[in-house]
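protien #1 (seq + structre)
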Amino acid sequence: MIPSPDGSPVPPHLTKALDYHAIEIAKLLHQALEASRCTSTPPDHDLLEHTRLVGYASSDLLRYAKLLCGLQAVQMQAIGYSTTAVARYLQIPVADVPQLATEEARQLFAGLINSPDPHHDSCAHALGRSIASWESADRDRTEVALAALFHNPDDPDSLRHLPTRLQDAVQEVAKALDTVAT
């Protein structure tokens, strides 16, 4: 996440926003994979349908990722980072920062921190308010699934950031995935 200039902890609204976007992005990746498999294997293989369905999922995925980066940019600006610092942390050219810190990202941020909505019930502000009050078990499920797929089983510390119950779940899911892969 974003290093705080004063060493203060990460605000809960940022972790909730990341959780929400990570879950939505994971769903969209799954939709793209599913569409690809369904449209590229007989009897249903169809290039036009494949292009359409994978394109929808991909463009939605890009929108979520861009909105998440925009939210990060707005948060960094709100705590006093310069445009140059924002660009450095997001690994983009300085000229691209305004393209990320869009009005939609600003409205999402305002909703997350429960600031008034200058646009009177904008969708992004409402989403931000919803995310800020969101409590979801989907975060644990998503994190277990992703960790089972991508953690390094040869590194004994690769799961230490997770609670023990989730570490155990990751190990179980990883074993199940290993049986599918063989």
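ok now protien #2
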Amino acid sequence: MGRGLSGWVPRIMVAAAAGGIVAVLMANGIGGAALALVVLAVVLSVAMPSSPAPTLVLVLVGLSVLVLGRDPLAGPVLALIPLVHLFHVSCAIAGTLPAKSRVHLSALRTPALRFVAIQAGVLALAGLLALVRVDHVTAPLEILALAGLAAVAFLMIWLIYRA
């Protein structure tokens, strides 16, 4: 067979992340037609990871969180963040690899490091937001948020024109 992991491993990662997403949604009261749509989109995503189905999963999860009406820093919402990100990254990898191919672990190192770095940043941001009072937002915090938004916009423009 050759060295490396089977091309099915990213698809198994998609299924595992999707299973976690569905479990969190079910545990928090999402059911019926909404859950059926999520499960259908998940099954399509596992079968066809480079189709629009993963995007539908992301939209449906976002709408489900909105319908729950929970605090954005609640446990279930925070649990969905790495699961949805892992689902997204796994679909991207599975969509580019044929199922019968082989992939070396070294090829997955960069995406794994990027995943961990992004999740660390998100966790740090969630921790910072947990410290901010909800009833009163100070002007320096608003200015800092606008500067951060401008920096992200500048970075995106730079990355687009650099390519």
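DSSP finds six helices and two strands in the chain.
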